[in-house]
Amino acid sequence: MLQRTCNTILALWFIFPFSFGFCEEETFYRDVAIIGGGASGTFAALKLKEQGKSIIVIEKENSLGGHTNTYQDPGTRQTAEYGVQVFHNQLVVRDLFKRLNVSWTIAILQDDPFPPRFLDPKTAEPVHYSSPNATAALGAYAAQLAKYPDLERGFFLPDPVPEDLLTPFGEFLQKYPDIQDATFIAFSYGQGLGDYLKQPTLYVFKNFGLDIVRDISSGFIVTANHNNYDIYARAAEVLQRDLLLNSIVASTTQRDDNGVDMNIRTPNGNTRVLAKKLLITIPPKLENLGHFALDHCESITFARFNNTGYYSSLVNNTGLPQNFTAYSVSPDTQQNIPILPGVYNVVPTSIDGVFAIKYGSPSSLSDDYVKREIISYVKKLQANGHANPVSGDPTFVAYANHDPFELTVSPAEIARGFYRDFYSLQGYRSTWYTGAAFHTQDSSMLWRFTDSYVLPPLLKSFGS
Q1: Contact, 27 vs 21, CB < 8 A?
Q2: Could you say which of 39, 159, 262, 339 is the most buried, measured as most Cβ atoms within 10 Å of its Cβ?
């Protein structure tokens, strides 16, 4: 009898925007349920609340922030970023920081104060490599980007898709040799693309776009206290009771034009969320969406994605001097782009003795494997004379798995209009999407994309 009463109430709720007293404790009634509390999900939650919509954010981790990873040394209170580093100098970023009372400044990224080592990613031995003067090549690269200005907004592609965008980036470099001297800079900023030279040029352009090229010379926004997580800590204060952390969707019993009914597994037991709209911000891989009652159209679309692996860590007890910086280059590859899986770089942090080490792979890897490889690489640095003697093994201060990272489809799929069809899912079955798969792995650009192309039609779908 109670279940029948609850079902009647739920049916009425989808029609009339008010809540009832029955089943209140185990059910959340919201205008929008947001899956994922990373950059896109957190931003969307704040903006929707500003527009007077009730929301709930369902996040599997114990905090917001996604790829924003900040470590604070418990003794010195100094911080080290091992995820998102900087933000674009855009109005959407400045407005968000103002909304959250986050102080910021402009920083022009400087060359390394000490000459970096260029080392083989497998052996950690020196490779003969000289960094080219990339100024002219960056200008030529920017001229190529300028041919496709809509790529700065999202996957808005010409029809038909130009062959240059479908070409593997290594072949693109051979076709346009005037940009070759900018390759290593593009690779360094576009970490996480896996087999970089084999990726369609489209994905390189998306990850190292015009706005980044401009900000390299004019400056990026950085938080004044060098603590990017502060953005999400303050967002959590605003959202408060609208957060379900350490929580996942266990099942979806309804997702159609009448709304969404989901069962959520939380640390305090199972609960229920009923929402008029659903906004999914997590990577749309089938393994992530298995509990959302996908139909055939959705399943075949999401099944086309491949992904790379990207892993970030802070390591101490290395014996490396505080001025040690190393970049991986391969001795016999085009433009010396390192062969992955392997270490991207080893750079010092503001915390004495702690080094940031990034690791990438063309496909997903287990955390145990990646951690072993990182420690093995540090030991090779030690064996090759880069470090002072230390007692004991290197240890992880912090580690983050950003897998699945870059979601890609084949050039043939792109040419057949995959992204047109992908974007057409917006609003289908009361479900909307944002996140890196819809644009790029970049917080600032995702905030702008979400603000401009996702939230306006979502809000409009509620009617006047």
Answers
A1: no
A2: 39
**Hey, how many other C-beta atoms are within 10 angstroms of the C-beta on 400?**
18
Instruction: Tell me where in the chain the CATH 3.90.660 domain(s) lie.
Output: 110-218+309-401
- The architecture of the domain spanning 110-218+309-401 is Alpha-Beta Complex (3.90)
Contact 448, 152 (CB under 8 A): no
Q: Which residue reads 């790029």 in tokens?
A: 440
CA distance 364 to 360: 9
Q: Please name the CATH architecture into which domain 2-68+226-304+411-460 falls.
A: 3-Layer(bba) Sandwich (3.50)
User: Which tens digit of pLDDT belongs to each residue from 17-37?
Assistant: 333 333 444 799 999 999 999
In three-state secondary structure terms, 36 is coil
| pTM value surpassing 0.90 | yes
**Does residue 328 surpass a pLDDT of 50?**
yes
Per-residue pLDDT tens for 76-130? 999 999 999 999 999 999 999 999 999 999 999 876 677 899 999 999 999 999 9
- Cα separation, 365 vs 403, in Å, equals 8
The model's pLDDT over 362-382, given as tens digits with 9 standing for 90+, comes to 999 999 999 999 999 999 999
Count the neighbouring beta carbons within 10 Å of the beta carbon of residue 143: 12
* C-beta of residue 289 within 8 angstroms of C-beta of residue 309: no
Whole-angstrom Cα distance, residue 459 to residue 204? 32
List, in order, residues 6 or more apart from 48 with CB less than 8 Å away.
31, 32, 34, 55, 455, 459
Domain with CATH 3.50.50.60 in the chain: 2-68+226-304+411-460
- What Rg, from alpha-carbon coordinates, does the chain have? 23
